[in-house]
Design a protein that fits this description.
944 residues; alpha+beta; Isoleucyl-tRNA Synthetase, domain 2; 29 helices; ligase; nucleotide-binding; leucine-tRNA ligase activity; aminoacyl-tRNA deacylase activity
């Protein structure tokens, strides 16, 4: 009876679907285990073999936990809003919903083919209105909340209104905009409704504000920092500039400290935690205010070294700083304007990374030192970012390398004084930036003090004169939440006299309208500006024609859409109760599942999705909607499966193509070759296929220089990518070798968290293993299962495997489990094991890794139903306790034969048995050995 993987896999995939085998229950008495993969974006290219790596690992754990008696939630869905679908819509005119739906259909086919144990009854798509109505509702909750520093959590905005109406805002300790004017309770109550709403916008957790953004003119949208690579858009490589726009923003900064502290409570890799710590960027120091000479303006700075204030030589503002236009002198205006224009073309990330380029312009203005009253020149420089700190620095070149380089670069030019040295240390060659081993000099009342005492003293003096105070600062900025795109969640917002109003929950979702084109309008409005039915009737509570807008009862709706991270910042909770029409999830479902026990995905999401998800989860916890502070208990980042690219080598005139072994000392150029043109195992090029391939028409008449009658391509490990033609389709592997082979092979390639190259040639070994496993259960005539008692060696092989596989799954070391399976099957084959007592637990052991063949074997063993919840075999130590030892028997140090003896024999008993052995007598030839050396359990050596 042969192993036909295609028939077996199709049979069991159909069985699982029809029987809802992997559907989780929200009311089970079993302990829960929630395992989740990061949301896939359904691109048109479909999956390549690198994509399922994390899914296979999570599926092994999910299946293992079911075997252990857990109620496992292992859902899947799609992060289906996004820029790629919109760009494709712009190019083709097709609605993004259509292409997204088609891409999802393709993804689903591929995922099903690999045999994942997903609970598809809970599938979600962020672009479905029944999903994004809840995203809209969460946005409204953020709008209706403020952050109370006294309670250290978000609260309903009604509690803030109550404080205002009874106490005013003087004693309100909130995360809010800066420089809010104080008012009394009487003044608040006398304000008009509009005035009150404008004030509340300064406190809300999501708010409208003019913000510096990354604007991509070619894409017509704002981009997040992680959507920009080397100063251009990741999508399409278009230029990105900095500009000010009125945007919705989220006060993630309110949660900076909690986001930091929460990292100590979760089981994530230290590298991901460190990425988040660096992104949040906590600094302890002081806020200092410098007056601007001849102006009513002041410059606020945050510094971690207030003790160095007497070393301030100049000040630097970010080019975007709002004061620049106000304080720049007429003489410097042209130079400043030109510099600002040039800087706008560089992203914040690019400016942060570029530590070599020194550039800046003197504004012509001067600030006043708070203690010496000395004039300090004010410069602008793109190494200062408007979004970090206050967008201004007090430059102390003697104590900071970047300030030192800046001062020396502009030394002798207008507006750059000599560097002041305030340390009893030499700074002729470099800045002195240590916090120990010095005393202050030329520092007035700080002279003779060190870092610690100097810091304490300066903060006391700053507070005395009202020029500063101790402060903790965070690099984390509020997150811009508006996108000038079509294919995203519509905001549930309409505008009355320019002020935002939220649409009531019972009228959600506000569904994305139809538009004729997906580009911005001619006057620069977002794509929703093309919609003709996009106004809110506040009486009928419905979306109506724009022509009916009267700003009395019918008002304009928000034209921006939410960013890609909106829907993915809470999706794990929707899986808990995916069909709830009223709420994003019921209280009972949330209480039962709590949060994700195991989350697997890419490390590239460290400071994007993972940070935003934690923020939204904490907010929902504050407001009583989520049961836990952290969304993901344990996080594993899978490594990348790399492609094995193939190359041909062309001569400079492109008329000759040399085989790999003939290119030495030749001036050749490598060209990527589509893997469809080569034999992936022998690396031989199919020349006729290559000539006929549309990509290589330029070489249809080229001469192929062969070695031994063949053209051998070059191979190189690179990122798997369509552009490198090294993508391997998992469908092809499943069709030829089977999904179980694919699953085992991807795990066998190496540790889950490491990058590893794909090599199709290696897959035949795994395919052969499954055929060997099959032959333990079947021969050509059918089942060979025996009900006899197994031997001790058979039990030993099985329990070694139980022990190893259990430990490996618990430690996520899946590659070594596959090796152990191979060892076990080889051992059982040599022992001629067809025994039910061994092969039944072996089928269960294999099931998480190769579920289709395991189901078939379980069925062949006479069992009904699925193997998926059969108890996982338990390791028993007794089967590994050695009762015998195979001793090497040596004569004068040379091993001649082995003998198996019980381990409890004494040395004298061992000697008696060995001396009586016929093989010993043949070796001695009648001689008596001079010495017999015996170490029980180790060696037997006869000397002389």
């Amino acid at each position: 009876m042969k192993y036909f993987h295609n028939e077996i896999e199709a049979k069991w995939q159909q069985y699982w679907a029809e029987n809802q085998t992997f559907a989780a229950s929200n009311t089970s008495d079993k302990p829960k285990y929630y395992v989740l993969d990061m949301f896939p974006y359904p691109s048109g290219a479909g999956l390549h073999v690198g994509h399922p790596l994390g899914y296979i690992a999570s599926d092994i754990v999910a299946r293992y936990k079911r075997h252990q008696g857990f109620n496992v939630l292992h859902p899947q869905g799609y992060d289906s809003f996004g820029l790629p679908a919109e760009q494709y819509a712009i190019q083709t005119g097709q609605h993004p919903e259509k292409t997204t739906r088609e891409n999802i259909t393709r993804y689903r086919e591929q995922l099903d083919k690999i045999g994942f144990s997903f609970d598809w009854s809970r599938e979600v798509r962020t672009s479905n209105p029944d999903y994004y109505k809840h995203t809209q509702w969460i946005f409204i909750q953020l709008f209706e909340s403020w952050y109370n520093k006294n309670t250290d959590k978000a609260e309903n905005i009604s509690t803030l209104i109550e404080l205002f109406s009874t106490e005013g805002n003087a004693n309100v300790n909130a995360v809010c905009d800066e420089n809010i004017a104080p008012f009394t309770a009487a003044e608040w109550n006398a304000f008009s409704s509009e005035q009150q709403q404008q004030i509340l916008l300064q406190y809300r957790l999501t708010y409208l504000a003019e913000t510096e953004v990354n604007w991509c003119p070619a894409l017509g949208t704002v981009l997040a920092n992680d959507e920009i690579v080397n100063g251009v858009s990741e999508r399409g490589g278009h230029p990105v500039i900095r500009k000010k726009m009125t945007q919705w923003s989220m006060r993630i900064s309110a949660y900076a400290e909690r986001l930091l502290q929460g990292l100590e409570t979760i089981d994530w890799s230290e590298s991901i935690k460190e990425s988040q710590r660096n992104w949040i960027g906590k600094s302890v120091g002081a806020a200092v205010t410098f007056k601007v000479k001849n102006h009513d303006e002041v410059i606020d700075v945050f510094t971690t070294r207030p003790d160095t204030i007497f070393g301030v030589t100049f000040m630097t503002l970010a080019p975007e700083h709002e004061l620049v236009a106000k304080i720049t002198t007429p003489e410097q205006k042209a130079a400043v304007d030109a510099y600002i224009e040039a800087t706008a073309k560089r992203s914040e990330r690019e400016r942060m990374a570029d530590v070599k380029t020194i550039s800046g312009v003197f504004t012509g203005a001067y600030a006043e030192h708070p203690f010496t009253k000395e004039a300090i020149p004010v410069w602008i420089g793109d190494y200062v970012l408007a979004g970090y700190g206050t967008g201004a620095v007090m430059a102390v070149p003697c104590g900071d390398e970047r300030d030192y380089a800046f001062a020396n670069f502009f030394k002798g030019t207008n507006g750059m004084p000599e560097i002041k040295n305030i340390f009893n240390q030499d700074i002729s060659e470099a800045a002195f930036n240590e916090k120990a081993g010095f005393e202050f000099v030329a520092s007035d009342f700080l002279n003779g003090l060190d870092y610690k005492s100097g810091t304490k003293k300066i903060i006391e003096e700053l507070e005395k004169i009202g020029a500063g105070n101790a402060k903790v600062n965070y690099r984390l900025r509020d997150a811009v939440f508006s996108r000038q795109r079509y294919w995203g969640e519509p905001f549930p917002v309409y505008y009355v006299n320019g002020l935002p109003k939220m649409i009531d929950k019972k009228h959600l979702p506000i569904v994305l309208p139809e538009v004729e084109k997906y580009l911005p309008t001619e006057d620069g409005q977002p794509p929703l500006g093309n919609a003709t039915v996009w106004a809110w009737d506040s009486l009928q509570c419905s979306v109506v024609s724009n022509q009916l807008i009267d700003n009395v009862n019918i008002f304009p709706l928000e034209l921006n859409t939410m960013p890609g991270w909106a829907g993915s910042s809470w999706y794990w909770m929707r899986y808990m109760d995916a069909h709830n029409t009223e709420d994003f999830a019921s209280e009972s479902a949330l209480k039962y599942w709590e949060n994700v026990d195991l989350y697997i995905g890419g490390s590239e999401h460290a400071t994007g999705h993972l940070l935003y998800s934690r923020f939204w989860n904490k907010f929902l916890k504050d407001r009583g909607f989520a049961p836990t502070e952290e969304p993901f208990k344990k996080l594993i980042n899978q490594g990348m499966i790399l492609g094995m690219s193939a190359f041909v080598y062309r001569s400079e005139d492109s008329k000759t193509l040399y085989s790999k072994g003939l290119i030495k000392d030749k001036n050749v150029h490598p060209i990527h070759v589509d893997l469809a043109c080569i034999n992936d195992i022998t690396n031989e090029l199919d020349i006729e296929k290559f000539r006929a391939h549309p990509l290589y028409s330029d070489y249809a008449n080229a001469e192929f220089v062969l070695e031994d009658g063949k053209y051998i391509v070059g191979r190189e490990v690179e990122k798997m990518s369509k552009s490198k033609y090294n993508v391997v389709n998992p469908d092809d592997i499943c069709n030829e070798y089977g999904a179980d082979t694919l699953r085992l092979y991807e795990m066998f390639l190496g540790p889950l968290e490491q990058a590893k190259p794909w090599n199709t040639a290696g897959i035949t070994g795994v395919s052969g293993f499954l055929k060997k496993l099959w032959r333990l259960y079947f021969d050509d005539n059918g089942s060979v299962i025996k009900d006899e008692e197994p031997t001790a060696e058979m039990y030993k092989s099985l329990h070694k495997t139980i022990k190893k596989v259990t430990e490996d799954i618990e430690n996520f070391s899946f590659n070594t489990s596959v090796s152990q399976f191979m060892i076990c099957v080889n051992e059982l084959q040599q022992l001629k094991c067809n025994h039910r007592a061994i092969l039944e637990p072996l089928a269960v052991l294999v099931s998480p890794y190769a579920p289709h063949i395991a189901e078939e074997l379980w069925n062949a063993l006479g069992h009904k139903g699925s193997i998926s919840t059969v108890a996982f075999p338990k390791f028993e130590e007794k089967y590994l306790v050695e009762s015998e030892k195979e001793y090497p028997v040596s004569f004068n140090g040379k091993m001649r034969f082995t003998i198996k003896l019980p381990l409890d024999l004494t040395a004298a008993q061992i000697e008696e048995i060995v001396m009586a052995d016929e093989r010993t007598q043949n070796q001695l030839q009648g001689r008596t050995p001079n010495k017999v050396i015996i170490v029980p359990g180790k060696i037997i050596n006869l000397v002389g």
